[in-house]
Amino acid sequence: MDRQHEQFDLKRLNDLNIVEVARHSNISLHRAGVDYKTNCLWHEDQHPSLILYNRAGNQHCHCYTCGAHHSVIDLDMAIGEWSFNEACQWLSN
User: Fold this and answer.
1) Using an 8 Å Cβ cutoff, are 27 and 37 in contact?
2) What are phi and psi of 31, to 5 degrees?
3) For 3-32, how does the pLDDT look when each residue is reduced to its tens digit (9 = 90+)?
4) Contact 76, 21 (CB under 8 A)
5) DSSP conformational letter for 11
6) pLDDT tier at 75, thresholds 50, 70, 90
């Protein structure tokens, strides 16, 4: 493991509620059954196609247009345009 990443509990960070992380970052979310959707952060999206799956032990998001599949940390990196370490630091706080 990269020494820079040893300072973070990656399992705990990726188990954070992905919907709450998005809300805290002022991402506009729309209810989609038990999940939430928003515009994809990995491609130019005119219609919400990124689904946020808020499941105990399985927090992730998936875009059904471009195929992007990401963790809570990945989502935070895209939202904040941050490096991995910056996103982990923000999520740790």
Assistant:
1) no
2) -65, 135
3) 555 689 999 999 999 999 999 999 999 999
4) yes
5) H
6) very high
